[in-house]
Design brief:
The chain has helices at 16-30, 48-55, 90-93, 111-122, 142-147, 164-167, 203-207, 215-236, 252-258, 266-274, 276-281, 302-312, 329-334, 348-353, 355-371, and strands spanning 2-5, 35-38, 59-66, 72-81, 84-88, 127-131, 151-153, 172-174, 186-191, 262-265, 285-288, 292-293, 317-321, 323-324, 337-340. The chain is of the alpha/beta class. Keywords: Kinase, Transferase.
Length: 372
């Protein structure tokens, strides 16, 4: 029996690699003859690089760049050969890199992501996949664009700084110095949301509070992104702010659109990189999962995309997640069966601590039901 294990991470407790491995061990404890096909997944956020390193031949490339708080930091990305590279924004400017007490969009920057792109271009990489989910920033990609040569100016003609707070001071932008090598590159952005840059569904109102923004900051950043967006659109003579995904990662989606990049489903890009569809064709059963599943799972999240491929090839697909939302109707339309690993009423801390045990036991019971 061939079983594909293609989960996303259980954020805060288990990586997608760990989830895949635990599921596989549980099934083989019931039937040693099970042939596991492990394809850890991600949808463009934290853990994308880790998933790809397990499933693709690659070279790990290290570099020193600017961290989310402006500090010098050691980071890495991967080269896949043939001038292809994958960079993970969360690995450079991600929210988990910022201590909780310091989470504040005023003090974070995407500058290091621009440095990483420059580093890849210096190596001759010209086909770039960039995962932008999980950022700690709300700067509209200001810092990243500055690192790549864009100039931003305040009302008195001085160059603006690179942090989120500096976005509120930008009155002019100049793209004439943007790194010319970007014109030679194909840049695909792994993005799992379709939010516009501003407004009630924009970067600031939807995601700002998760990054430490107060109500006043949220309103201020929404206004600042609106003004900044208009400056960029006028400079480039393009309409970008309403493009689905422009509001991703605190407006990084908008900045990449300004560079001519293409926003694509993060789950699809990762699935293509790990050759997931071919694995599913050979499978008798597919298992996927994530930390929390609800109606959003079917819209761009990794388990939803895995399920679409499984249904395309008429394979049963099981969702096994940390917890499930109240309304399962949409999930049941896509998955053959949906299960939570919770064994009993528990606090969030207990769920995180017991995730490995609970996942193993639940996967084992599913295996007994299917195989025995």
């Amino acid at each position: 029996m061939n079983v594909v294990f293609a989960p996303d991470s259980y954020k805060g407790s288990l990586s997608s690699i760990e989830v895949s491995t635990i599921m596989s061990k549980a099934f083989q404890s019931v039937e040693p003859e099970v042939t596991p096909i492990i394809k850890p997944m991600a949808d463009g956020g934290e853990g994308t690089l880790e998933a790809l390193t397990q499933a693709t031949a690659h070279e790990k490339v290290t570099l020193s760049c600017t961290g989310p708080l402006g500090e010098r930091s050691e980071s890495w990305y991967i080269s896949l050969g043939d001038s292809r590279a994958v960079i993970e924004g969360a690995n450079i400017a991600g929210l988990p890199l910022v201590p909780h007490e310091k989470q504040n969009p005023d003090a974070t920057t995407t500058y290091g992501l621009g440095e990483a792109i420059r580093h890849a271009l210096d190596r001759g990489e010209r086909d770039l996949i960039i995962a932008i989910g999980g950022s700690s920033t709300n700067d509209g990609g200001l810092g990243m664009l500055q690192a790549l040569g864009m100039k931003a100016y305040t009302a008195d003609g001085k160059e603006a700084g690179m942090f989120g707070k500096d976005l509120l001071t930008v009155k002019k932008v100049d793209f004439s110095g943007l790194d010319a090598r970007l014109n030679e590159a194909t840049i695909r952005i792994a993005c799992d949301v379709d939010n516009p840059l501003t407004g009630p569904r924009g970067a600031s109102y939807v995601y700002g509070p998760q990054k430490g923004a107060s109500k006043q900051q949220t309103a201020d950043y929404d206004q600042a992104l609106e003004a900044y967006g208009q400056l960029v659109e006028k400079e480039l003579d393009k309409e970008l702010a309403e493009v689905p995904g422009a509001g991703a990662a605190g407006g990084l989606g908008f900045a990449f659109l300004a560079m001519g990049a293409h926003l694509q489903s993060g789950a699809r890009l990762v699935a293509e990189a790990v050759d997931l569809e071919e694995a599913i064709k050979q499978a008798d059963l597919v298992l996927t999962g994530e930390g929390q599943s609800d109606e959003q799972t079917v819209y761009g999240k990794a388990p939803g995309y895995v399920a679409e491929l499984a249904r395309l090839h008429e394979k049963p697909v099981i969702l096994l997640s940390g917890s499930l939302g109240e309304d399962l109707d949409e999930l049941n339309e896509l998955f053959t069966g949906c299960f939570s690993i919770l064994q009993r009423p528990s606090t969030l801390e207990e769920c995180i601590q017991q995730a490995e045990h609970n996942l193993y036991q639940t996967a084992r019971q599913i295996a007994r039901l299917i195989i025995k």
